[in-house]
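Module 6 notes. Inverse folding takes a fixed backbone as the condition and produces residue identities as the prediction. Think of it as a translation problem where the source language is geometry and the target language is the twenty amino acids. Below is one complete input and output pair. Work through it position by position during the lab.
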């Protein structure tokens, strides 16, 4: 007689229709499973895929343990007999915290060397599976580095807790640094907070900001006859 596993663990933020557990019901035509009693608002047994799936938003449940009850019918054709066994599956809903995630990092951002100091150059975005509105995550700029130089560039950019990145000092493509790397951390609001770290690479783009110049300080023009000679 086939009997499924009874105890199942699932996270509270599992999506509707996601599979909780796949059951290996023998495909011999002798076994039939029917489960239609219990917490059917949240759980459902899909006989076509032989799996237990989420049927509703688990966040709205009032108990941490859900159950689904039904029967397993085992037909013994050789003896013309039917066995019925009552089945009950218990689902423990846990609120395990997941780390927050970035939506638009890592990223390489190209900005003009004419960008003004104090200007907003980028908005970092992230999220948390526990907070759909994304209002409870905060950001921190951990450090700034520049390629091919030992110059201290920590005050070149700033970022607030909402993820807005600002330019603080003028850029110079011709005589300055052309690549910056910002290490950014995102943290959730859980009592035991988790974080994640990613990188924003900034590439300074050249602009026509140099006045035209003569190659020589002086030029002499000598006129011979009707044709000028330089």
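Target side of the pair, the amino acids:
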């Amino acid at each position: 007689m086939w009997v499924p596993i009874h105890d199942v663990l699932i996270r509270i933020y599992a999506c509707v229709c996601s599979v909780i557990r796949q059951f290996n019901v023998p495909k011999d035509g002798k076994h039939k499973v029917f489960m239609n009693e219990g917490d059917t608002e949240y759980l459902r047994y899909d006989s076509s895929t032989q799996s237990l799936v989420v049927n509703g938003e688990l966040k709205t449940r009032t108990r941490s343990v859900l159950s689904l009850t039904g029967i397993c019918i085992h037909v013994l054709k050789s003896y013309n007999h039917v066995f019925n066994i009552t089945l009950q599956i218990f689902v423990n809903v846990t609120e395990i915290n997941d780390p927050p995630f970035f939506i638009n990092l890592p990223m390489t951002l190209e900005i003009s060397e004419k960008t003004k100091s104090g200007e907003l150059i980028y908005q970092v975005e992230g999220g948390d599976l526990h907070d759909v509105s994304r209002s409870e995550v905060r950001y921190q700029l951990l450090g700034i580095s520049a390629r091919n130089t030992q110059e201290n560039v920590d005050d070149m950019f700033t970022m607030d807790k909402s993820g807005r990145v600002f330019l603080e000092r003028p850029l110079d493509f011709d005589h300055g640094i052309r690549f910056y790397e910002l290490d950014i951390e995102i943290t959730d609001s859980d009592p035991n907070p988790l974080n994640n770290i990613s990188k924003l690479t900034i590439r300074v783009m050249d602009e026509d900001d140099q006045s035209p110049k003569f190659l020589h300080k002086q030029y002499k023009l000598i006129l011979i006859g009707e044709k000028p000679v330089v």
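Reference fact for the lab report: The domain at 101-205 is CATH 2.60.40.60 (Immunoglobulin-like).
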